[in-house]
Each structure stands twice: as structure tokens, then as C-alpha cells.
Design goal:
This protein has 394 residues and is mainly alpha-helical. It has two domains: 248 residues, no CATH class; 119 residues, abc type-2 transporter like domain (abc type-2 transporter like fold, 3-Layer(aba) Sandwich), CATH 3.40.1710.10. The protein is built from 16 helices and four strands. Helix 2 packs antiparallel against helix 8 and helix 11 packs antiparallel against helix 12. The longest helix has 31 residues. It is elongated and about 95 Å long.
Length: 394
């Protein structure tokens, strides 16, 4: 078959798929509208970028000027909002059970007297750690505020004894810890979650869209027409059918990067060419993986069920929400069945860390492996598309 003949068949298949896309609202949603809406939704959710004004209840059992100062310092923290001043711990616990507060701070009786004595009483803090990230940030904010308050009180006490400010400070805080937060110094929630969540949504649509586009051919018994337009060449059929979707996903990738690096101000410290190429390769890897699943099952409904689990589980096993270093060995090995895992590592290296691009090329190589595995399943996929016994399956 000549090159011109291949190109003609490829054009026929691509035009056929374009017509199918505009005839079916579900295909328009999968290929373009769905990803765009998902990206805009995530951008809106993380537009604040950092957590602020988390509700806290304070039980002030001392009612002294010094305890009132501590309450004011807590409320001055951008993360904490002392929305409830309650009389006892039971009332505060009821507020937490009702979901009205995320933390309880208890200032004990005789707190002011104890601060200026040798044995100051402890301020107790109860943190709702159901959401680990939110609980950790809130715990850090409360701890820093109370620590700062304690140091100020000790400095004041030492100065009253006649020590100069520098000496009083050194005696109150003999070890000064200098902390440097790397890559996300502002504890930006968007840099942590939106960075991984938005590309994850793109992979969901790419994987599920490919499954549906090819699976519906089996379900409706039109697979023979697809192969006929491709002159019985499965590679021509796959490339021609995927071309319109890939074009739409390129558009969504452009929007994705605009929202991440401009809208959410995610840092781009490495190669933007690497990031663009890796995102395109990620989409292709998931499209090829979808063809592998469909070739093995030849069942649209079963493929979509498996695909939904396959795409969403990657977010957990990739190491974004829980570090891979802490996973059991079985989970570490399992995490590499998802193309999202190596892509995320390369993306973080080039966006947040800005390391030399040569160190990130290995992740692109791994993504290519997923594509090759998917391509190896095309002969099996052709068998499923060509034989009538596989048509009509839900």
C-alpha cells in the first residue's frame, strides 16, 4: 500500500470520527467540555491558595490580661480564627462534634501567675486531624503562636530582673532554630494538590474517552466499518480515530498550563518544553493503556469500570498524597503500573525543583514504555474489532 493510500485512509477515519464526535454529546464532553470544566472548577476551589481563618474555640479559664493577650495573638494568626469563646471544655467539644470548629485551645486557671513562676501551666490544644493536611497546618499555627507568646513572656520576666533585651532573649530561647522550607515555602495548598489533581483529571478523560470511543464501536457493531475505512490496517484505524481527541487534549493541555502557571501562580523553575512534551506523552500513554484494557476485555461496561479504578487509584499510589518511601514494597511496585507515577516525578522536578532536564529524561523513557505496551496490544484489539462474536457486548 502506498504512502498516499495510507494518508487517504487515515483522513477518512479521522473525518469519520469528527462526525461521530459532533453527533454525540458524550464524546464532546469527554474530549473537550469535561476537562475544561474540571480545570476551571479546581482553579476556583484553590484560588485562595493557602488555608486561612480556620475556626477555633477558646476555653479561657483564667480571664486575665495575659490570657486575653494570648487569645488576641491566636486570632492574629492568618490561619486561626477564634470564632468561639466558651465557658467549658464540654461546650467546646460539642462545637467540634458539630463540625463548627477545627481546634480547641484551653487556657488553664491561674495561667498568668504560672507564667511568671518557675512552673508555668500548660496550654492544651485539641486538633481535629480528620483532614491530615488541614490538621497539620492548624497544629503548626497554634504551636508557633503559643511558642512565640511563651518566649515573649519569658523575655519580659527576665528584663524585669534587670537583664538587657538580648541577654533576656538568649536565656529564654537558648537554641534558635532557623527553618528553610524548600520548593513550597508558603505552604501553598494549590502547589500541593492542584498541581497533581488537574493533570490527573486530564488522564481520566483521556483514558475513559479512549475506552468509550473504541468500545462503542464494539457495542454498536460498527467496528467492521472502522476497519474498512482504515483498509483493514489497525494502526491506521487507531491513529485516525485518536487524532481528533488528541487535538482537543492539546487544547486542554494549553489551558491546564495557563491555569497552573498563571492562574494559580505555580512556579516554573525548569524546562517548559519538557513539561509540554511530558503532558502530551502522558495523554498518549493513557490512551494506549486504554486500548490494552479494551483488547483484553472486549467489553465496554467492564472496561469503563476497570478504567475508573485504574485512573483514580494513581493519585494515591503516585506518592502525591502519601510518600512512596513509606509504602510497603508491594504498594511501591504496584504504583508503577500507572503512567501518572513517573510523569508526576518529572513534572515536580521541572516545575518546583528546577533540576537539570537531563535528570528528568528517564521519566519520559518510562512513559514511552507504557506506549509501547499499548501498541503491542493492537493485533489483539484488531481481532476483537473484526470478529462479530465480540460485537454487541455492553
Amino acid at each position: 500500500m502506498s504512502k498516499q493510500h495510507y494518508l487517504k485512509a487515515l483522513k477518512t477515519v479521522a473525518l469519520r470520527e469528527v462526525n461521530r464526535i459532533f453527533e454525540r454529546k458524550v464524546l464532546i464532553f469527554i474530549s473537550l467540555a469535561g476537562p475544561v470544566l474540571a480545570f476551571l472548577l479546581v482553579t476556583g476551589i484553590f484560588s485562595e491558595k493557602v488555608l486561612r481563618d480556620l475556626p477555633v474555640a477558646v476555653v479561657n479559664q483564667d480571664q486575665s490580661p495575659l490570657s486575653a493577650k494570648l487569645v488576641r495573638m491566636l486570632d492574629a494568626s492568618p490561619i486561626v480564627a477564634t470564632q468561639y469563646m466558651v465557658a467549658n471544655i464540654t461546650e467546646a467539644q460539642n462545637l467540634m462534634k458539630d463540625g463548627l470548629v477545627d481546634a480547641i485551645v484551653v487556657i488553664p486557671t491561674h495561667f498568668e501567675k504560672s507564667v511568671y513562676s518557675a512552673n508555668p501551666k500548660k496550654v492544651e490544644a485539641y486538633i481535629n486531624n480528620t483532614n491530615v493536611v488541614k490538621g497539620g497546618i492548624l497544629n503548626s499555627a497554634v504551636y508557633k503562636t503559643i511558642t512565640t507568646f511563651t518566649v515573649q513572656a519569658k523575655v519580659s520576666t527576665q528584663m524585669k530582673k534587670g537583664l538587657p533585651m538580648d541577654a533576656a532573649y538568649d536565656r529564654s530561647l537558648p537554641i534558635n532554630l532557623s527553618t528553610h522550607l524548600l520548593y513550597n515555602p508558603y505552604s501553598n495548598y494549590a502547589w500541593f494538590l492542584a498541581m497533581g489533581l488537574m493533570p490527573m483529571m486530564l488522564t481520566v478523560f483521556a483514558f475513559m474517552g479512549t475506552l468509550y470511543a473504541f468500545g462503542i464501536e464494539l457495542k454498536e457493531g460498527t467496528a467492521h466499518a472502522l476497519l474498512a475505512d482504515a483498509d483493514d490496517n489497525i494502526l491506521v484505524a487507531v491513529i485516525g480515530k485518536l487524532l481528533p481527541y488528541t487535538f482537543f487534549y492539546v487544547i486542554t493541555i494549553s489551558l491546564l498550563n495557563i491555569l497552573l502557571f498563571v492562574g494559580l501562580n505555580l512556579p516554573l523553575n525548569g524546562s517548559w518544553l519538557y513539561i509540554l512534551f511530558s503532558e502530551g506523552l502522558l495523554v498518549l500513554a493513557y490512551q494506549m493503556s486504554a486500548l490494552l484494557v479494551l483488547a483484553l476485555t472486549s467489553n465496554l461496561r467492564l472496561s469503563l469500570s476497570l478504567g475508573s479504578a485504574f485512573t483514580m487509584m494513581a493519585l494515591t499510589f503516585s506518592g502525591l498524597t502519601f510518600p512512596q518511601e513509606g509504602m510497603p514494597m508491594v504498594a511501591k511496585v504496584y504504583s508503577w503500573i500507572f503512567p501518572y507515577t513517573p510523569w508526576l516525578k518529572g513534572f515536580m522536578e521541572q516545575s518546583l525543583k528546577g533540576i537539570p532536564v537531563t535528570y528528568s529524561l528517564k521519566w519520559l523513557g518510562i512513559l514511552c514504555v507504557y506506549c509501547v505496551i499499548g501498541l503491542a496490544s493492537l493485533p489483539l484489539l484488531k481481532q476483537k474489532l473484526a470478529h462479530q462474536k465480540h460485537w454487541g457486548k455492553h
